[in-house]
Specification:
The structure holds 2 protein chains of 2 kinds.
Chain A lengths: L2 H11 L21 H15 L5 H6 L3 H10 L6
Chain B lengths: L7 E6 L3 E7 L19 H19 L4 E13 L8 E11 L3 E10 L2 E14 L10 H9 L10
Antiparallel strand pairs in B: 1-2, 2-4, 3-6, 4-5, 5-6
Classes of the chains: A mainly alpha, B alpha+beta.
Chain lengths: 79, 155
């Protein structure tokens, strides 16, 4: 997956317009990135990419860049 | 009417799958409005039937930090009308069962025909949030008729 495809996936996940989600977007900028949004993100990472997040990773996700980094670490994002 | 949208559990594999049923009687007041002269079970109630059935399946698992609660309707489709006094047979298969969340593929059949389906997302609400004496009477009835034999409990 390219970075652009990943950003579009994240936007869809959080029901945002694609142009509102960039590498620099932070959690506070995305209303749907609330507690339910975190669980939805965890479920979709698990379901779509086989990625199961640790508690530390869940706690550490504060920006879109953090999500991209998780995808990259798990081989789902082109370097 | 009470908001208990599962009458009977017919088959239960805790945390994995469940088959249950619900019949809404023609005398239910809601059918006066939904719709006059053309009573049909509302799609939201069909969705709730699927959510309650899947929730009982998860609660029966006994491994979560709370009770299963519908968090998101990821998709829902309604194909055919369900009329009063028809037996709705509810099927749910848990597709992801994690400590913090779960997902379920569900559908309802009437007379062997699939009338609706839904992909549901569940979160878990701590047991302390509920009344201390809160029991799931439908699940209890199932366990009474089918005592658990494994390590899973009655939730």
């Amino acid at each position: 997956m390219t970075q652009q495809e990943a950003l579009e996936w994240i936007a869809k996940l959080f029901e945002e317009k694609p142009e509102r989600v960039t590498v620099d977007t932070v959690r506070g900028d995305i209303p749907a990135w609330d507690s339910l949004g975190v669980l939805t993100l965890m479920a979709d990472l698990d379901n779509n990419f086989g990625i199961q997040l640790s508690d530390d990773e869940v706690q550490g996700m504060r920006t879109v860049k953090d999500i991209l980094e998780i995808l990259r670490r798990n081989g789902q994002l082109a370097p | 009417m009470r908001f208990v949208l599962v009458d009977t559990i017919h088959r239960l594999e805790p945390g994995k799958s469940i088959t249950a049923s619900k019949r809404l009687a023609a005398g239910e007041e809601l059918f006066r409005d939904h719709f006059p002269g053309f009573p049909v079970v509302p799609g939201v109630l069909l969705t709730e039937m699927m959510a309650q059935a899947a929730g009982k399946c998860l609660d029966a698992d006994g491994t979560h930090p709370g009770r299963a609660m519908l968090g998101k309707i990821r998709s829902a489709n309604f194909r055919e009308w369900v009329r009063p006094d028809q037996d709705a047979v509810i099927h749910a298969e848990i597709t992801q069962n994690r400590p913090a969340y779960a997902t379920a593929d569900c559908f309802v059949e009437v007379d062997g025909r699939k009338v609706c389906s839904a992909d549901l997302f569940f979160v878990f609400v701590p047991h302390e949030r509920f009344a201390p004496d809160y029991r799931d009477e439908v699940l209890d009835a199932y366990w009474k008729a089918n005592p658990p034999t494994g390590t899973t409990g009655s939730g």
